[in-house]
Amino acid sequence: MAAADFQIDEGGPGLTLRLTGDWTATELGRITRRLDDALQDRCIDAVDLSDMGRFDTAGALAIVQSSNCVLPQAAWTQRPEAGRTYAMVEKLERESAGPPKRSPGWIRGFAKIGRGIQDIGDEATLSMAFLGRLIVASGTTIKYLLLAFLGWLLMPFGAVVRGFDKDRGGRLLQTGQDLRSRKSIRWPAWFSQGERAGLDAIPIVAVTNFFIGAVIAFLGANLLTQFGAGVFTVQLVAVATLRELAVLITAILLAGRSASSFAAEIGSMRMNQEVDAMQVMGVNPFQALVIPRVAAMVLMLPLLTFIGIVAGMFGGMLVTWSQLSYGPAFFIQRVSEDPMMGQHLFVGMIKSPVFAIVIAAIGCRQGMAVAGDVESLGRRVTAAVVQAIFAIISLDAVFALIFLELNL
Fold first, then answer.
1. Residue 66 half-sphere exposure, CB side, CA atoms within 13 Å?
2. So which residues are the signal peptide here (predicted)?
3. Cα–Cα dist 127/261, whole Å
4. Do 320 and 225 form a contact (C-beta atoms < 8 A)?
């Protein structure tokens, strides 16, 4: 086996290419670049194959790409089989589509912007459809809750009536039991989601808000002491924690923790076709998957917000005690005697149910939109977290403007 080589004879009437060695894929080496430099897109008029060994499609491709003209079949009379190989490769190279023409950068930029706007429109349309289904399912759930509550009221009333009228009292008791025993509300799912989304998040919520309150107290103590107003550090910590930071930090933590969890859980069920199986069995996926998660978040986020308030105030109290020598009794007295603290607490707590609905709805919406591949699952989980955090911060700004107009 000899390495491929060549010689170019320019002395005759045309350009003659003399091939030596084996022109195969394993023996070409760097011959292609050398041949390109030697020919410089000139046409080959004849080929001398007397000293050539083996010849395959790789050798033919090197000649086709280096020469600017097509060799006639008459040039391959010494080796007809090599001529056929060359003709086949030349035809494929000629008929194969070239690389797609790349559009100018400004056109690609506008195209990307257009696709982004279209994606935003599609996402908004699908989100509105999801919101409509969620409202319908929530209305049905509220109806069943009211019926169950009515059943709870009828039970003791029926027991009292049965003491005077056995038949009517028995019917009232039976009606109350029927209303209470309706299986439309999946209480185990509610409690399970409440435990995972709420109770399990207490440590991280408490610790994070504790340090946030401590940081606010440090900043207030350092800045306000310079003006002889260090005592107002207590009000700074209380107002910031009660009104904004506790609910905002807690909601952001649950957006990263619970929204991603909801999207991953429902998305995995979508990938495994479990949601389709539920529909085949006559189970409403919204009642079974979405409503328990939304209800759990609505119930748990106010509780976690209150825990965050307590933790943040405790962190601020420790810092004011250590830095300003204001004891816990003084801190609590300053907070309790301020008539505006109740209003600040109301402003902070009223936002938590809204944030809870947004977090759960976005997580479930992205989970329901997962396709059948893992890439889609990862993309939707990421979108759930990003959209939930963005929505929380945007809503908090809207609430701030509303309360400013209401003078709260």
1. 21
2. none
3. 19
4. no
This prediction's pTM: 0.67
Distance CA 280, CA 321 (A): 62
Q: Is residue 101 part of a domain?
A: no
Q: Are residues 37 and 144 in the same domain?
A: no
Give the phi and the psi of residue 23 in degrees, each rounded to 5.
-95, 70
Query: Contact at 8 Å (CB) between 193 and 181?
Result: no
Structure tokens at 197: 């989304």
164 assigned to some structural domain: yes
Structural domain that includes position 159 = 140-183
Q: Is residue 134 part of a domain?
A: no
First to last CA, the chain: 92
- 147: amino acid identity, one letter: L
Cα separation of 381 and 182, whole Å? 34
Looking up residue 38, the CATH number of its domain turns out to be 3.30.750.24
Residue 204 domain-assigned (yes or no): yes
Q: Are residues 315 and 168 in the same domain?
A: no
Position with higher pLDDT, 35 vs 375: 375
Mean pLDDT of the chain: 81
What is the per-residue pLDDT across 10-31, written as a single tens digit (0 to 9) for each? Answer: 766 667 777 777 777 776 767 7
pLDDT at 241 (0 to 100): 92
Do 43 and 72 contact (CB within 8 A), yes or no?
no
178 and 253 both lie in a single domain: no
Residue 237, Ramachandran bin (φ over 0: left; ψ between -120 and 50: alpha; else beta): alpha
